[in-house]
C-alpha cells in the first residue's frame, strides 16, 4: 500500500511546482537565500502565523543582520525583539545556536544536514526546511500544514501522531522532494510563458517543492472548509474523491482547555512602578511582569485580592480592577485582573523587585498579558 502511494508521488511534483510558481506569496524571507535569514524565519514561524511573523522578522533582521550580531546581542535585546511572539525558549535557543555557529563553524551557517540538526532548538523539520530552502538539498519537511495535505491527498486514515503513520508521512515527504530534485525544466501544460508561471529552475526545485507543500496547506488545504476546486492536485486527492476532507487528518482529540485566574498589582510611587523579572527555568523565563499571584477560585472576589496582596507584601487599593486581561497560552485560558496597590513596607528599597519609570518599562520585554497592562497604563497618561 505504501509503495503504490510512493509510486504516484512523482506525478504530483510538476503540479505542485507549477502551482507554487504562479501562487506563492511574496514573503520577505523568500527574497533571499541567506541561511541565517531563512533560519530566523523558520524559528519564528513555529506555532505562529505568517502575518504575525513578518514585522518581527523584518525588525530582527534590521537590528541583528548577521549571525555574529545575534550571538553578541544582550539577552535583554533578543527578548525585546521577540516580545509578543511567545514560546521564548525559541529565541534563547536561537541565540545559543548563533553562539555555537560562531564558536564551531567560524560564524558561517553550516550546510551539512547533521550539523544543522545538531544546533540548539532545531529539529528534523526545521533542519530540512533550512537545508532545502537555503541550500537546495533534497531533505523532507513535515509540519502541520504538510501533514494535513499529505493525509488528505494519499487518504491516510490513521492518526498521524502514531509512530508508524509518522514514519510513512516522512517517507512520502522524502519521495516528493527527491522527485523534485530529479525533475527537469518543463513548461506547465496549457500555460503561456510569463514571469509568474515560467518553469522553475532545477536548482531551486527542492526549495520550491517543500515550500509548495507548506503554502498549499496554508492557503488551500486548510483545516476547515478547504478550497478543493482551487487545489492543483484535486484530481489525485483521495480525500476529495471519498469526501473525507473534514475527517482527515484523523487527529486524536486535544485535552480540554484549562482556566486559570491571576491577580496582578500595579504599584506606583514617585512616578515609578514596581516590576519583577521571571526567573530562569520557568515559563516566560527572564521576561518582566507586575507582581502577581495565581488564585484557585473560579471568581475573583475582594477577599482574594486582599489575600493575594498580603502574600506579595502589598496592600490593595481601589474598589474595582484597573483592567481585566484575557489571554491564551497553549491549552490554558487565562484571566488576569490588574489592581492598584501600595507597598506594606514604607521603604521602597525593602520591596522585592525594581522601581522603574514608564519610559524605562517600555524598553523591557514583558510577558504578553502584562504588556497589555503596560499598554493600559500608557493610555491613562
Question: How would you describe this protein?
Answer:
The protein is an alpha+beta fold. The chain has 2 domains: 241 residues, Orthogonal Bundle (Endonuclease III, domain 1), CATH 1.10.340; 123 residues, Alpha-Beta Complex (Nucleoside Triphosphate Pyrophosphohydrolase), CATH 3.90.79.10. Helices cover 45% and strands 13% of the residues. The chain is built from 15 helices and 8 strands. Strands 1, 2, 3, 4, 5, 6, 7 and 8 form an 8-stranded mixed sheet that branches. Helix 1 packs across helix 10 and helix 2 crosses helix 3.
Defining traits:
single chain, 381 residues, alpha+beta, Nucleoside Triphosphate Pyrophosphohydrolase, 2 domains, 15 helices, 45% helix, 13% strand
Give a concise summary:
The protein is an alpha+beta fold and 381 residues long. The protein has helices at residues 2-23, 35-45, 50-63, 67-72, 75-82, 89-104, 113-117, 124-135, 144-153, 163-182, 205-219, 238-242, 302-311, 358-361, 368-380, and strands at 258-269, 272-277, 288-289, 292-295, 314-317, 323-329, 332-343, 354-357.
**What structural class do the secondary elements suggest?**
alpha+beta
Q: In percent, how helical is the residue content?
A: 40-55%
User: What is the count of structural domains?
Assistant: 2
Described by the principal axes of the CA atoms, the overall outline is globular
The proportion of strand residues reads 5-15%
> What is the overall pLDDT average?
91
The first-level CATH class of the largest domain is given as Mainly Alpha
Main sheet?
Answer: 8 strands, mixed
| Gyration radius, rounded | 25 Å
At CATH level 2, the architecture of the largest domain is Orthogonal Bundle
Q: Helical segment tally?
A: 15
* The CATH topology of the largest domain: Endonuclease III, domain 1
Task: Provide the low-confidence segments as ranges.
Answer: 185-201
Question: How far from one another are the termini?
Answer: 67 Å
Q: What is the string of SSEs from the N terminus onward?
A: HHHHHHHHHHHHEEEEHEEEEHH
Question: What is the strand tally?
Answer: 8
Under CATH, the homologous superfamily of the largest domain reads Hypothetical protein, domain 2
Amino acid at each position: 500500500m505504501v509503495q503504490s502511494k510512493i509510486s504516484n508521488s512523482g506525478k504530483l511534483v510538476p503540479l505542485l511546482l507549477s502551482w507554487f510558481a504562479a501562487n506563492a506569496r511574496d514573503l520577505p524571507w523568500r527574497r533571499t537565500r541567506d541561511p541565517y535569514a531563512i533560519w530566523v524565519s523558520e524559528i519564528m514561524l513555529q506555532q505562529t502565523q505568517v502575518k504575525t511573523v513578518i514585522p518581527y522578522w523584518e525588525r530582527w533582521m534590521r537590528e541583528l543582520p548577521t549571525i555574529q550580531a545575534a550571538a553578541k546581542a544582550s539577552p535583554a535585546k533578543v527578548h525585546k525583539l521577540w516580545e509578543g511572539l511567545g514560546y521564548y525558549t525559541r529565541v534563547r535557543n536561537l541565540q545559543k545556536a548563533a553562539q555555537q555557529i560562531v564558536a564551531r563553524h567560524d560564524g558561517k551557517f553550516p550546510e551539512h544536514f547533521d550539523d544543522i540538526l545538531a544546533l540548539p532548538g532545531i529539529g528534523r523539520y526545521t533542519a530540512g526546511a533550512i537545508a532545502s530552502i537555503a541550500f537546495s538539498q533534497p531533505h523532507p519537511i513535515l509540519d502541520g500544514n504538510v501533514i494535513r495535505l499529505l493525509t488528505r491527498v494519499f487518504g491516510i486514515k490513521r492518526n498521524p501522531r502514531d509512530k508508524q503513520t509518522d514514519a510513512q508521512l516522512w517517507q512520502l515527504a522524502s519521495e516528493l522532494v527527491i522527485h523534485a530534485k530529479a525533475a527537469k525544466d518543463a513548461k506547465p501544460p496549457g500555460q503561456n510563458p510569463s514571469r509568474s508561471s515560467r518553469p522553475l529552475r532545477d536548482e531551486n526545485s527542492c526549495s520550491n517543492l517543500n515550500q509548495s507543500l507548506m503554502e498549499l496547506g496554508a492557503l488551500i488545504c486548510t483545516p476547515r472548509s478547504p478550497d478543493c476546486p482551487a487545489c492543483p492536485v484535486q484530481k489525485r486527492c483521495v480525500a476529495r474523491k471519498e469526501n473525507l476532507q473534514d475527517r482527515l487528518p484523523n487527529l486524536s482529540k486535544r485535552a480540554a482547555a484549562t482556566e486559570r485566574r491571576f491577580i496582578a498589582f500595579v504599584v506606583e510611587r514617585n512616578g515609578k512602578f514596581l516590576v519583577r523579572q521571571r526567573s530562569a527555568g520557568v515559563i516566560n523565563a527572564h521576561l518582566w511582569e507586575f507582581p502577581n499571584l495565581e488564585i484557585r477560585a473560579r471568581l475573583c472576589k475582594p477577599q482574594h485580592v486582599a489575600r493575594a496582596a498580603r502574600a506579595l507584601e502589598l496592600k490593595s487599593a481601589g474598589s474595582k480592577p484597573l483592567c481585566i486581561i484575557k489571554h491564551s497560552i497553549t491549552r490554558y485560558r487565562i484571566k488576569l485582573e490588574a489592581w492598584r496597590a501600595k507597598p506594606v513596607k514604607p521603604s521602597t528599597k525593602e520591596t522585592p523587585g525594581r522601581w522603574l519609570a514608564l519610559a524605562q518599562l517600555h524598553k523591557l520585554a514583558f510577558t504578553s498579558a502584562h504588556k497589555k497592562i503596560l499598554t493600559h497604563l500608557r493610555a491613562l497618561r
